[in-house]
């Protein structure tokens, strides 16, 4: 990873990068004191904060945030620190970022942090992102929702959490598939049955006019 611009000596760049990788916050602070820009980015737009999140270095993340790192600065593909923390399922780092105002919105490809956590199977991260009011039925460019992604991967616990949070089991992707369809295609029959039952309940509620928005409770 080559950081730009080298407005100060390359040794500072190498030193702060190595300090972040081993989560030596004291050394990170020293290098910032030598003039390192807290929002420095490489050619792909990856900032020091993104590096610290990717390397799961919580002390460095905390220090960079306190030093003024931009919490929502995205890299070239649109991923923010929250996206990377969600992919890793690192709840302490997710909390730090959310406490600093990290956005739960989608990246340039339509993927939200919730989708990353759901796809990767991180239940605690999904819980936290739902508590942070992540849009549960947001869809990617291909029309895939967090529920569909969890169903594809067979993450039963996450499917239950998303349904409890109000995810729509009848929503379809751009090629017309529901979460149940994707679960069955990937051999996740137990998940498919859960989704079929949820879809049937939703259809019955709509038929008798008793459907109400679900309470924002999260499956423990």
Automatic annotation (TrEMBL):
Pfam families: Ank, Ank_2. ANK repeats lie at residues 44-76, 77-109, 109-141, 142-174. Transmembrane segments: none annotated. Keywords: ANK repeat, Repeat. InterPro entries: Ankyrin_rpt (IPR002110), Ankyrin_rpt-contain_sf (IPR036770), Dendritic_Spine_Reg/Scaffold (IPR050889). Residues 200-220 are annotated as: Disordered. SMART domains: ANK (SM00248). This is Ankyrin repeat domain-containing protein. It comes from Thiobacter aerophilum.
């Amino acid at each position: 990873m080559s950081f730009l611009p080298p407005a100060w000596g390359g040794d500072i760049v190498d030193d702060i990068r190595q300090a972040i990788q081993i989560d030596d916050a004291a050394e990170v602070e020293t290098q910032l004191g030598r003039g390192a820009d807290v929002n420095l980015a490489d050619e792909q737009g990856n900032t020091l904060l993104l590096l610290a999140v990717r390397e799961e270095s919580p002390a460095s993340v905390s220090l960079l945030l306190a030093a003024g790192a931009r919490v929502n600065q995205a890299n070239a593909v649109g991923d923010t620190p929250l996206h990377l923390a969600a992919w890793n399922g690192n709840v302490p780092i997710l909390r730090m970022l959310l406490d600093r105002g990290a956005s739960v919105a989608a990246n340039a490809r339509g993927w939200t942090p919730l989708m990353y956590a759901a796809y990767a199977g991180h239940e605690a991260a999904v819980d936290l992102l739902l508590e942070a009011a992540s849009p549960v039925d947001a869809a990617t460019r291909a029309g895939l929702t967090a529920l569909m992604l969890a169903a594809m991967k067979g993450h039963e616990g996450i499917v239950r959490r998303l349904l409890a949070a109000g995810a729509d089991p009848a929503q379809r992707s751009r090629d017309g598939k529901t979460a149940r369809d994707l679960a069955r295609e990937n051999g996740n029959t137990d998940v498919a049955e859960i989704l079929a039952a949820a879809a049937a309940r939703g259809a019955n509620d709509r038929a008798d006019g008793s459907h109400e928005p679900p309470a924002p409770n999260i499956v423990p």
